[in-house]
Amino acid sequence: MMQPTTELNALFTLIDDPDEEVFSTVSNRLVHLGRNIIPNLENLWENTLSEDVQERIEMLIHRLHYTDLTHDLSEWRDGAYHDLLFGALLVAKFQYPDLHTTPVLQDIEKIRRNVWLELNSFLTPLEQANVLSSIIYNYYNLKGVEVNYTHPDEFFIHKVLSSKKGNAISNGIIYQVMCELLDIHAKIINIPKQMVIAFYHSDYDPLTYKGHPSEKIHFYVDGISGQAYSHKDIEGYFKRISVPPTPSYYKPISHKRIIQILIEEVAKCFDLPSNAYKKEELLKLAVLLDQ
To answer: Which residues contact 218 (CB under 8 A, 6 or more apart)?
Structure first.
């Protein structure tokens, strides 16, 4: 819905002003007017012949979306419950501001239903993990790929679900979302450079348990492929990377921290001078989650 106002038209006539200071004032005022002016800007873009002016309009639209996203992410951060799937969708909206979430929720529900049909209350945690991995990676065909910063889409959950191809982080998030929807005691843990999901004993409470958290873990699953790992496998990994396996690595990471890691990783995809501003914006969003 376009906003017809004389102020808008006056500001629009100044978008092509060669004076950077004038343009800066105009763009700040336009951003202040909020996302409702996006249709007007798009209309202006379509009726503009100058590529420089089109570029300025694109930048303005991006700034408006980014302002919106900053607000939504702050609300998510301050909410009582940090829904992991919703957090991942917010990150995707950085690159795809017009993203419709309904198809994503339908995809997730389809996977959840297929897993749920195979589960029963007599299964051991390892049998539960086998059902989950079998449905997600074999039946649903989710493929795991190495982290590649030239392919940002492999970090965005809606793209991962439609292409069936994700990296350790995006696949790990999908796996944890499934566990939460199905009341399975499994969480992503803080193992360096990996997305590993620990299957915990049902009585484990990270806030009250005084022992080493690994004592309360049955086994581990690799988020990228669904492969199960034993305690020995994980100990071997720590030896290989020469890091002492302190208790903090075996504790669940909060949803807020998982989304922060996702944002920091996506930021690494924008290393060219032409899109360095995106890297800067993403790192600001990551810092926002610390506040």
So the answer is: 125, 126, 199, 200, 201
Strands 217-222 and 228-229: antiparallel
Q: From CA 161, how far away is CA 125, in angstroms rounded? A: 25
Which residue has 């195979």 as its token pair?
A: 118
Confidence (pTM): 0.90
Phi and psi, residue 217, nearest 5°? -110, 130
Q: Are 258 and 84 in contact (CB under 8 A)?
A: yes
Query: Helix crossing, 125-133 with 168-181: angle to 10°?
Result: 120
Q: Is the distance from CB of 37 to CB of 3 less than 8 angstroms?
A: yes
Write out pLDDT tens, residues 142-168: 999 999 999 999 999 999 999 999 999
pLDDT above 80 for 10: no
Q: Helix-strand-coil percent breakdown of the chain, rounded to 5?
A: 60, 10, 30
290's enclosing H/E stretch is none
Which residue(s) pair with 189 in the sheet?
196, 252
